[in-house]
Fold:
Amino acid sequence: MVAIDVLPDDVLLAIFVKFQDLTLTEGHWDYKREIESWQSLVHVCRRWRGLVLGSPRHLNLQLFWEPSRTAMKSLDVWPALPLIIQGSVYETSVDDIIAVLEHSDRILKIKLWFHTSSRIEQLWKAMEVPFPDLELLLLSFTRLPYRPDLPDSFFGGSVPRLRYLSLDSIPFLGLPKLLLSVTHLTFLFLEIPHSGYISPEAMATSLSMLTRLKMLYLSFQYPQTRPDQEIRRPPPPTRSILPTLTYFRFKGVHEYLEELVAQIDAPRLDELSITFFNDIDFETPELNQFISRTPIFGAYDESYIIFRGCDDEVKLQFHPRPSGLQDRMVDVTISCQPSDWQLSSLAQICTLSLRLLLTMENLNIYEDPHYSPDWKDDIENTEWSDLLLPFTAVKKLYLSWQFAPRIAPALQELTGVRTTEVLPVLQIVFLEGFQPSEPVQEGIAWFISARQLTNRPIAVSFRNRPDPGPELYEVVD
Structure:
Protein backbone atom coordinates (compact mmCIF):
# COMPACT_ATOMS: atom_id res chain seq x y z
CA MET A 1 0.00 0.00 0.00
CA VAL A 2 1.42 3.37 -1.06
CA ALA A 3 0.06 6.91 -1.02
CA ILE A 4 -1.29 8.25 -4.32
CA ASP A 5 1.14 11.16 -4.05
CA VAL A 6 4.02 8.93 -5.11
CA LEU A 7 2.47 8.35 -8.56
CA PRO A 8 4.19 10.26 -11.38
CA ASP A 9 2.32 12.94 -13.33
CA ASP A 10 1.68 10.81 -16.42
CA VAL A 11 0.02 8.09 -14.32
CA LEU A 12 -2.15 10.65 -12.54
CA LEU A 13 -3.19 12.11 -15.89
CA ALA A 14 -4.18 8.65 -17.10
CA ILE A 15 -6.30 8.22 -13.96
CA PHE A 16 -7.91 11.63 -14.50
CA VAL A 17 -8.82 10.71 -18.08
CA LYS A 18 -10.43 7.49 -16.86
CA PHE A 19 -12.30 9.44 -14.18
CA GLN A 20 -13.81 11.70 -16.82
CA ASP A 21 -14.76 8.76 -19.01
CA LEU A 22 -16.62 7.15 -16.10
CA THR A 23 -18.40 10.40 -15.31
CA LEU A 24 -19.59 10.72 -18.88
CA THR A 25 -21.04 7.20 -18.91
CA GLU A 26 -22.86 7.18 -15.58
CA GLY A 27 -26.18 7.60 -17.36
CA HIS A 28 -27.39 10.74 -15.59
CA TRP A 29 -28.84 13.71 -17.47
CA ASP A 30 -26.82 16.51 -15.86
CA TYR A 31 -24.92 17.70 -18.90
CA LYS A 32 -23.24 20.54 -16.99
CA ARG A 33 -21.95 18.09 -14.39
CA GLU A 34 -20.59 15.82 -17.10
CA ILE A 35 -18.74 18.61 -18.90
CA GLU A 36 -17.26 20.09 -15.73
CA SER A 37 -16.46 16.88 -13.85
CA TRP A 38 -12.78 17.85 -13.95
CA GLN A 39 -13.45 20.73 -11.54
CA SER A 40 -13.74 18.35 -8.59
CA LEU A 41 -10.12 17.28 -9.23
CA VAL A 42 -8.62 20.77 -8.97
CA HIS A 43 -9.98 21.20 -5.45
CA VAL A 44 -8.10 18.17 -4.06
CA CYS A 45 -4.66 19.78 -3.73
CA ARG A 46 -2.32 22.30 -5.34
CA ARG A 47 -0.46 19.62 -7.29
CA TRP A 48 -3.63 18.21 -8.82
CA ARG A 49 -4.86 21.71 -9.67
CA GLY A 50 -1.64 22.55 -11.48
CA LEU A 51 -1.60 19.20 -13.26
CA VAL A 52 -5.22 19.49 -14.47
CA LEU A 53 -5.06 23.12 -15.53
CA GLY A 54 -1.68 22.52 -17.14
CA SER A 55 -3.10 19.81 -19.43
CA PRO A 56 -6.28 21.36 -20.91
CA ARG A 57 -6.01 19.63 -24.30
CA HIS A 58 -5.03 16.23 -22.92
CA LEU A 59 -7.97 16.28 -20.51
CA ASN A 60 -10.28 18.10 -22.94
CA LEU A 61 -11.19 20.74 -20.36
CA GLN A 62 -14.34 22.73 -21.15
CA LEU A 63 -16.61 25.19 -19.36
CA PHE A 64 -20.40 24.98 -19.41
CA TRP A 65 -22.33 28.27 -19.42
CA GLU A 66 -26.06 28.74 -19.14
CA PRO A 67 -28.03 31.99 -18.96
CA SER A 68 -28.49 33.07 -15.35
CA ARG A 69 -27.81 36.05 -13.11
CA THR A 70 -24.55 34.68 -11.73
CA ALA A 71 -23.32 32.78 -14.75
CA MET A 72 -20.97 35.49 -16.01
CA LYS A 73 -19.10 35.55 -12.70
CA SER A 74 -18.40 31.82 -12.94
CA LEU A 75 -16.27 32.36 -16.06
CA ASP A 76 -13.87 34.75 -14.31
CA VAL A 77 -12.47 32.15 -11.89
CA TRP A 78 -11.17 29.82 -14.60
CA PRO A 79 -8.62 30.12 -17.39
CA ALA A 80 -9.80 30.86 -20.94
CA LEU A 81 -11.04 27.34 -21.66
CA PRO A 82 -13.36 26.28 -24.51
CA LEU A 83 -16.99 27.24 -23.85
CA ILE A 84 -20.28 25.40 -24.25
CA ILE A 85 -23.34 27.68 -24.19
CA GLN A 86 -26.69 26.06 -23.53
CA GLY A 87 -30.04 27.11 -22.11
CA SER A 88 -33.33 28.94 -22.57
CA VAL A 89 -33.41 32.56 -23.67
CA TYR A 90 -35.71 35.02 -21.93
CA GLU A 91 -35.78 38.80 -22.19
CA THR A 92 -33.85 39.11 -18.91
CA SER A 93 -30.98 36.93 -20.14
CA VAL A 94 -30.29 38.54 -23.54
CA ASP A 95 -27.61 40.87 -22.14
CA ASP A 96 -25.74 37.99 -20.49
CA ILE A 97 -25.77 35.97 -23.71
CA ILE A 98 -24.49 38.93 -25.73
CA ALA A 99 -21.69 39.37 -23.20
CA VAL A 100 -20.58 35.74 -23.32
CA LEU A 101 -20.68 35.76 -27.15
CA GLU A 102 -17.79 38.22 -27.00
CA HIS A 103 -15.65 35.12 -26.33
CA SER A 104 -16.40 33.87 -29.86
CA ASP A 105 -12.81 32.70 -30.34
CA ARG A 106 -13.25 29.89 -27.78
CA ILE A 107 -16.92 28.87 -28.09
CA LEU A 108 -17.37 25.21 -29.12
CA LYS A 109 -21.13 24.70 -28.92
CA ILE A 110 -24.22 26.92 -28.81
CA LYS A 111 -27.66 25.53 -27.95
CA LEU A 112 -30.33 28.16 -27.35
CA TRP A 113 -34.11 27.74 -27.08
CA PHE A 114 -35.81 31.12 -27.43
CA HIS A 115 -38.84 32.08 -25.34
CA THR A 116 -38.75 35.72 -26.38
CA SER A 117 -38.10 37.65 -29.57
CA SER A 118 -37.35 40.89 -27.73
CA ARG A 119 -33.98 42.40 -28.64
CA ILE A 120 -33.00 39.30 -30.61
CA GLU A 121 -31.68 41.52 -33.41
CA GLN A 122 -29.02 42.70 -30.96
CA LEU A 123 -28.11 39.10 -30.22
CA TRP A 124 -27.84 38.36 -33.95
CA LYS A 125 -25.55 41.39 -34.23
CA ALA A 126 -23.24 39.85 -31.62
CA MET A 127 -22.97 36.76 -33.80
CA GLU A 128 -21.83 38.59 -36.93
CA VAL A 129 -18.22 37.74 -36.16
CA PRO A 130 -16.13 34.65 -36.98
CA PHE A 131 -16.43 31.64 -34.65
CA PRO A 132 -13.24 29.75 -35.54
CA ASP A 133 -13.76 26.79 -33.16
CA LEU A 134 -17.56 26.44 -33.19
CA GLU A 135 -18.57 22.81 -33.81
CA LEU A 136 -22.29 22.82 -32.99
CA LEU A 137 -25.07 25.38 -33.38
CA LEU A 138 -28.69 24.79 -32.34
CA LEU A 139 -31.20 27.67 -32.38
CA SER A 140 -34.92 27.09 -31.85
CA PHE A 141 -37.86 29.51 -32.17
CA THR A 142 -40.57 26.83 -32.20
CA ARG A 143 -43.01 28.52 -29.81
CA LEU A 144 -42.70 32.13 -31.01
CA PRO A 145 -45.11 33.78 -33.48
CA TYR A 146 -42.53 36.39 -34.50
CA ARG A 147 -39.27 35.01 -35.88
CA PRO A 148 -36.62 37.59 -36.76
CA ASP A 149 -34.51 36.68 -39.78
CA LEU A 150 -30.91 35.70 -39.34
CA PRO A 151 -28.72 38.24 -41.18
CA ASP A 152 -26.67 37.25 -44.22
CA SER A 153 -23.56 38.30 -42.29
CA PHE A 154 -24.16 35.61 -39.65
CA PHE A 155 -20.84 34.27 -38.29
CA GLY A 156 -18.99 36.85 -40.36
CA GLY A 157 -18.88 34.24 -43.09
CA SER A 158 -16.37 32.12 -41.18
CA VAL A 159 -17.25 29.07 -39.12
CA PRO A 160 -14.78 26.51 -40.55
CA ARG A 161 -15.18 23.74 -37.94
CA LEU A 162 -18.98 23.57 -37.80
CA ARG A 163 -20.15 19.96 -37.86
CA TYR A 164 -23.71 20.16 -36.45
CA LEU A 165 -26.24 22.80 -37.55
CA SER A 166 -29.85 22.88 -36.35
CA LEU A 167 -32.14 25.84 -37.12
CA ASP A 168 -35.69 25.35 -35.87
CA SER A 169 -38.32 27.78 -37.17
CA ILE A 170 -35.78 30.52 -37.96
CA PRO A 171 -35.85 32.30 -41.33
CA PHE A 172 -32.36 32.43 -42.82
CA LEU A 173 -32.26 33.36 -46.49
CA GLY A 174 -28.47 33.45 -46.34
CA LEU A 175 -28.31 29.75 -45.48
CA PRO A 176 -27.23 28.58 -48.99
CA LYS A 177 -24.25 30.93 -48.83
CA LEU A 178 -23.28 29.66 -45.39
CA LEU A 179 -23.57 26.00 -46.42
CA LEU A 180 -21.12 26.57 -49.24
CA SER A 181 -18.42 27.30 -46.65
CA VAL A 182 -19.09 24.70 -43.90
CA THR A 183 -17.49 21.77 -45.68
CA HIS A 184 -17.00 19.78 -42.43
CA LEU A 185 -20.74 19.64 -41.68
CA THR A 186 -22.00 16.14 -40.80
CA PHE A 187 -25.49 16.90 -39.39
CA LEU A 188 -28.01 19.39 -40.83
CA PHE A 189 -31.44 19.94 -39.25
CA LEU A 190 -33.67 22.59 -40.86
CA GLU A 191 -37.23 23.36 -39.77
CA ILE A 192 -38.07 26.05 -42.33
CA PRO A 193 -40.88 28.58 -41.79
CA HIS A 194 -42.78 30.01 -44.74
CA SER A 195 -40.79 33.26 -44.69
CA GLY A 196 -37.50 31.33 -44.93
CA TYR A 197 -38.28 29.39 -48.10
CA ILE A 198 -35.27 28.17 -50.08
CA SER A 199 -35.76 26.80 -53.60
CA PRO A 200 -34.94 23.15 -54.40
CA GLU A 201 -32.25 24.29 -56.82
CA ALA A 202 -30.51 26.43 -54.18
CA MET A 203 -30.81 23.63 -51.62
CA ALA A 204 -29.36 21.03 -54.00
CA THR A 205 -26.45 23.32 -54.88
CA SER A 206 -25.69 23.89 -51.20
CA LEU A 207 -25.89 20.19 -50.34
CA SER A 208 -23.50 19.35 -53.17
CA MET A 209 -20.68 21.00 -51.23
CA LEU A 210 -21.32 19.00 -48.05
CA THR A 211 -19.24 15.95 -48.91
CA ARG A 212 -19.07 14.85 -45.25
CA LEU A 213 -22.77 15.18 -44.50
CA LYS A 214 -24.18 12.05 -42.82
CA MET A 215 -27.61 13.13 -41.56
CA LEU A 216 -30.09 15.51 -43.19
CA TYR A 217 -33.44 16.62 -41.77
CA LEU A 218 -35.34 19.02 -44.03
CA SER A 219 -38.81 20.07 -42.90
CA PHE A 220 -41.23 22.79 -43.97
CA GLN A 221 -43.84 24.02 -41.54
CA TYR A 222 -46.58 24.82 -44.05
CA PRO A 223 -47.78 23.22 -47.31
CA GLN A 224 -47.76 26.65 -48.98
CA THR A 225 -43.99 26.34 -49.47
CA ARG A 226 -44.24 24.89 -52.98
CA PRO A 227 -41.74 25.44 -55.79
CA ASP A 228 -42.90 27.65 -58.61
CA GLN A 229 -44.01 25.16 -61.27
CA GLU A 230 -44.17 27.86 -63.95
CA ILE A 231 -40.41 28.43 -63.84
CA ARG A 232 -39.45 24.85 -63.12
CA ARG A 233 -36.27 23.92 -64.92
CA PRO A 234 -35.37 20.46 -66.23
CA PRO A 235 -33.01 18.48 -63.96
CA PRO A 236 -29.30 18.99 -64.67
CA PRO A 237 -27.53 16.46 -66.92
CA THR A 238 -25.35 15.38 -63.99
CA ARG A 239 -26.44 14.97 -60.38
CA SER A 240 -24.53 15.98 -57.27
CA ILE A 241 -23.32 13.08 -55.14
CA LEU A 242 -23.61 13.10 -51.35
CA PRO A 243 -21.05 10.35 -50.69
CA THR A 244 -21.48 9.98 -46.91
CA LEU A 245 -25.20 10.64 -46.41
CA THR A 246 -26.84 7.72 -44.58
CA TYR A 247 -29.98 9.35 -43.08
CA PHE A 248 -32.46 11.61 -44.89
CA ARG A 249 -35.72 12.84 -43.41
CA PHE A 250 -38.07 15.16 -45.31
CA LYS A 251 -41.39 16.83 -44.50
CA GLY A 252 -43.13 19.03 -47.04
CA VAL A 253 -44.92 18.93 -50.38
CA HIS A 254 -44.06 16.24 -52.88
CA GLU A 255 -43.24 18.75 -55.64
CA TYR A 256 -40.33 20.10 -53.60
CA LEU A 257 -38.90 16.66 -52.91
CA GLU A 258 -39.30 15.72 -56.55
CA GLU A 259 -37.17 18.65 -57.70
CA LEU A 260 -34.59 18.08 -54.97
CA VAL A 261 -33.94 14.35 -55.45
CA ALA A 262 -33.79 14.82 -59.22
CA GLN A 263 -30.53 16.69 -58.62
CA ILE A 264 -28.78 14.48 -56.04
CA ASP A 265 -27.59 10.92 -55.46
CA ALA A 266 -26.89 9.32 -52.09
CA PRO A 267 -25.21 5.94 -52.71
CA ARG A 268 -24.77 5.11 -49.00
CA LEU A 269 -28.23 6.15 -47.84
CA ASP A 270 -29.86 3.47 -45.69
CA GLU A 271 -32.68 5.36 -43.89
CA LEU A 272 -35.20 7.47 -45.80
CA SER A 273 -38.19 8.97 -43.98
CA ILE A 274 -40.71 11.14 -45.84
CA THR A 275 -43.81 12.98 -44.66
CA PHE A 276 -45.99 14.56 -47.32
CA PHE A 277 -48.65 17.16 -46.73
CA ASN A 278 -51.95 16.08 -48.17
CA ASP A 279 -52.48 16.61 -51.87
CA ILE A 280 -55.02 15.58 -54.50
CA ASP A 281 -52.52 14.11 -56.90
CA PHE A 282 -49.22 12.50 -55.93
CA GLU A 283 -46.82 12.11 -58.83
CA THR A 284 -43.39 11.09 -57.60
CA PRO A 285 -41.45 9.55 -60.52
CA GLU A 286 -38.23 11.34 -59.48
CA LEU A 287 -38.51 9.94 -55.96
CA ASN A 288 -38.99 6.47 -57.40
CA GLN A 289 -35.89 6.95 -59.56
CA PHE A 290 -33.93 8.26 -56.58
CA ILE A 291 -34.80 5.13 -54.61
CA SER A 292 -33.88 2.97 -57.61
CA ARG A 293 -30.45 4.62 -57.78
CA THR A 294 -29.77 3.87 -54.09
CA PRO A 295 -28.13 0.43 -53.79
CA ILE A 296 -29.35 -0.50 -50.30
CA PHE A 297 -33.00 0.02 -51.29
CA GLY A 298 -33.06 -3.20 -53.23
CA ALA A 299 -34.71 -6.32 -51.85
CA TYR A 300 -37.56 -5.52 -49.44
CA ASP A 301 -39.86 -8.16 -48.03
CA GLU A 302 -41.71 -6.51 -45.12
CA SER A 303 -44.12 -3.55 -45.25
CA TYR A 304 -46.29 -1.86 -42.65
CA ILE A 305 -49.32 0.38 -43.12
CA ILE A 306 -49.99 2.13 -39.83
CA PHE A 307 -52.85 4.56 -39.21
CA ARG A 308 -52.23 7.16 -36.48
CA GLY A 309 -54.93 9.31 -34.89
CA CYS A 310 -52.82 11.91 -33.07
CA ASP A 311 -51.55 13.59 -36.25
CA ASP A 312 -54.22 12.31 -38.65
CA GLU A 313 -51.69 10.45 -40.73
CA VAL A 314 -51.02 7.10 -42.32
CA LYS A 315 -47.52 5.65 -42.50
CA LEU A 316 -46.07 3.16 -44.95
CA GLN A 317 -42.79 1.49 -43.97
CA PHE A 318 -40.63 -0.81 -46.07
CA HIS A 319 -38.10 -3.08 -44.36
CA PRO A 320 -35.39 -4.99 -46.23
CA ARG A 321 -34.10 -8.49 -46.09
CA PRO A 322 -32.12 -9.96 -44.41
CA SER A 323 -33.57 -9.33 -40.95
CA GLY A 324 -30.18 -8.14 -39.72
CA LEU A 325 -30.74 -4.88 -41.62
CA GLN A 326 -33.97 -3.84 -39.91
CA ASP A 327 -32.72 -0.30 -39.37
CA ARG A 328 -32.41 0.22 -43.12
CA MET A 329 -35.81 1.25 -44.31
CA VAL A 330 -37.98 3.56 -46.39
CA ASP A 331 -40.73 5.35 -44.50
CA VAL A 332 -43.49 7.36 -46.23
CA THR A 333 -46.17 9.22 -44.25
CA ILE A 334 -49.23 11.06 -45.58
CA SER A 335 -50.50 13.79 -43.26
CA CYS A 336 -54.22 14.40 -43.83
CA GLN A 337 -57.47 14.05 -41.91
CA PRO A 338 -60.25 12.44 -43.98
CA SER A 339 -60.00 8.64 -43.99
CA ASP A 340 -60.72 8.30 -47.71
CA TRP A 341 -58.00 10.83 -48.53
CA GLN A 342 -55.51 8.79 -46.56
CA LEU A 343 -56.35 5.66 -48.54
CA SER A 344 -56.36 7.31 -51.97
CA SER A 345 -53.09 9.16 -51.29
CA LEU A 346 -51.40 6.04 -50.01
CA ALA A 347 -52.64 4.04 -53.00
CA GLN A 348 -50.98 6.55 -55.32
CA ILE A 349 -47.69 6.31 -53.42
CA CYS A 350 -47.79 2.50 -53.57
CA THR A 351 -48.57 2.50 -57.28
CA LEU A 352 -45.61 4.78 -57.96
CA SER A 353 -43.29 2.65 -55.80
CA LEU A 354 -43.71 -0.60 -57.72
CA ARG A 355 -39.99 -1.37 -57.58
CA LEU A 356 -40.10 -1.59 -53.79
CA LEU A 357 -43.20 -3.79 -53.91
CA LEU A 358 -41.86 -6.37 -56.36
CA THR A 359 -40.28 -8.42 -53.54
CA MET A 360 -42.74 -7.51 -50.75
CA GLU A 361 -43.88 -10.81 -49.25
CA ASN A 362 -45.29 -9.58 -45.92
CA LEU A 363 -47.94 -6.84 -45.49
CA ASN A 364 -49.13 -5.65 -42.07
CA ILE A 365 -52.08 -3.27 -41.65
CA TYR A 366 -53.02 -1.89 -38.25
CA GLU A 367 -53.59 1.21 -36.15
CA ASP A 368 -51.10 2.87 -33.84
CA PRO A 369 -51.76 1.27 -30.42
CA HIS A 370 -51.13 4.58 -28.63
CA TYR A 371 -53.02 6.90 -31.01
CA SER A 372 -55.89 4.97 -32.51
CA PRO A 373 -57.46 6.80 -35.49
CA ASP A 374 -60.99 8.17 -35.51
CA TRP A 375 -61.84 6.11 -38.55
CA LYS A 376 -64.95 6.81 -40.63
CA ASP A 377 -67.05 3.95 -41.97
CA ASP A 378 -68.05 5.63 -45.24
CA ILE A 379 -65.05 4.25 -47.16
CA GLU A 380 -65.89 2.59 -50.46
CA ASN A 381 -64.62 -0.98 -50.85
CA THR A 382 -62.86 -0.10 -54.10
CA GLU A 383 -60.53 2.21 -52.18
CA TRP A 384 -59.21 -0.71 -50.15
CA SER A 385 -58.87 -2.79 -53.32
CA ASP A 386 -56.90 -0.01 -55.01
CA LEU A 387 -54.56 0.15 -52.01
CA LEU A 388 -53.90 -3.61 -52.03
CA LEU A 389 -53.60 -3.91 -55.81
CA PRO A 390 -49.85 -3.06 -56.12
CA PHE A 391 -48.83 -5.70 -53.54
CA THR A 392 -48.57 -8.49 -56.08
CA ALA A 393 -45.84 -10.46 -54.24
CA VAL A 394 -47.44 -10.56 -50.77
CA LYS A 395 -47.74 -14.06 -49.29
CA LYS A 396 -48.55 -13.15 -45.68
CA LEU A 397 -51.16 -10.55 -44.67
CA TYR A 398 -51.64 -9.32 -41.10
CA LEU A 399 -54.85 -7.43 -40.19
CA SER A 400 -55.55 -5.83 -36.83
CA TRP A 401 -58.87 -6.26 -35.04
CA GLN A 402 -59.89 -2.71 -36.03
CA PHE A 403 -59.14 -2.95 -39.74
CA ALA A 404 -60.00 -6.56 -40.55
CA PRO A 405 -63.77 -5.79 -40.52
CA ARG A 406 -63.21 -2.81 -42.81
CA ILE A 407 -61.07 -4.66 -45.35
CA ALA A 408 -63.16 -7.85 -45.35
CA PRO A 409 -66.05 -6.42 -47.49
CA ALA A 410 -63.54 -5.31 -50.14
CA LEU A 411 -62.12 -8.84 -50.33
CA GLN A 412 -65.60 -10.30 -50.48
CA GLU A 413 -66.35 -8.38 -53.67
CA LEU A 414 -63.43 -10.06 -55.47
CA THR A 415 -65.27 -12.82 -57.26
CA GLY A 416 -64.94 -14.59 -60.59
CA VAL A 417 -61.98 -13.42 -62.68
CA ARG A 418 -61.21 -10.75 -60.07
CA THR A 419 -60.54 -13.32 -57.34
CA THR A 420 -56.81 -13.31 -58.04
CA GLU A 421 -56.62 -9.69 -59.15
CA VAL A 422 -55.69 -8.50 -55.63
CA LEU A 423 -52.94 -10.26 -53.62
CA PRO A 424 -52.61 -13.01 -56.26
CA VAL A 425 -50.03 -15.13 -54.39
CA LEU A 426 -51.42 -14.69 -50.85
CA GLN A 427 -50.98 -17.84 -48.75
CA ILE A 428 -51.98 -16.93 -45.19
CA VAL A 429 -53.98 -14.24 -43.36
CA PHE A 430 -53.14 -13.43 -39.74
CA LEU A 431 -56.07 -11.94 -37.80
CA GLU A 432 -55.44 -10.11 -34.56
CA GLY A 433 -57.56 -11.54 -31.76
CA PHE A 434 -58.73 -14.46 -33.85
CA GLN A 435 -59.16 -17.83 -32.11
CA PRO A 436 -59.38 -21.16 -33.98
CA SER A 437 -62.70 -21.93 -32.26
CA GLU A 438 -64.29 -18.75 -33.61
CA PRO A 439 -65.76 -18.33 -37.10
CA VAL A 440 -63.80 -16.23 -39.55
CA GLN A 441 -65.37 -12.92 -40.54
CA GLU A 442 -67.84 -13.41 -43.34
CA GLY A 443 -66.05 -11.32 -45.96
CA ILE A 444 -62.70 -13.00 -45.38
CA ALA A 445 -64.29 -16.46 -45.30
CA TRP A 446 -65.97 -15.69 -48.64
CA PHE A 447 -62.66 -14.56 -50.14
CA ILE A 448 -60.90 -17.70 -48.91
CA SER A 449 -63.62 -19.92 -50.43
CA ALA A 450 -63.34 -18.11 -53.76
CA ARG A 451 -59.58 -18.55 -53.82
CA GLN A 452 -59.98 -22.24 -53.00
CA LEU A 453 -61.85 -22.62 -56.28
CA THR A 454 -58.85 -21.18 -58.17
CA ASN A 455 -56.53 -23.77 -56.60
CA ARG A 456 -54.78 -21.04 -54.57
CA PRO A 457 -55.76 -21.87 -50.98
CA ILE A 458 -55.35 -19.35 -48.15
CA ALA A 459 -54.89 -20.32 -44.51
CA VAL A 460 -56.07 -18.27 -41.51
CA SER A 461 -54.12 -18.00 -38.29
CA PHE A 462 -53.44 -15.82 -35.26
CA ARG A 463 -50.26 -13.86 -34.64
CA ASN A 464 -49.28 -11.17 -32.20
CA ARG A 465 -48.93 -7.70 -33.65
CA PRO A 466 -45.59 -7.44 -35.48
CA ASP A 467 -42.96 -4.93 -34.49
CA PRO A 468 -42.40 -2.39 -37.29
CA GLY A 469 -38.81 -1.92 -36.16
CA PRO A 470 -36.97 1.22 -35.14
CA GLU A 471 -38.43 4.65 -35.75
CA LEU A 472 -36.43 7.52 -37.23
CA TYR A 473 -36.01 9.80 -34.26
CA GLU A 474 -34.53 13.26 -34.14
CA VAL A 475 -30.84 12.99 -33.46
CA VAL A 476 -29.70 14.92 -30.40
CA ASP A 477 -26.07 15.68 -29.67
Observations:
- The first strand starts at residue 63 and ends at 65.
- The two ends are 42 Å apart (CA to CA).
- Residues 9-24 form the longest helix (16 residues).
- Residues 471-477 have pLDDT under 50 and may be disordered.
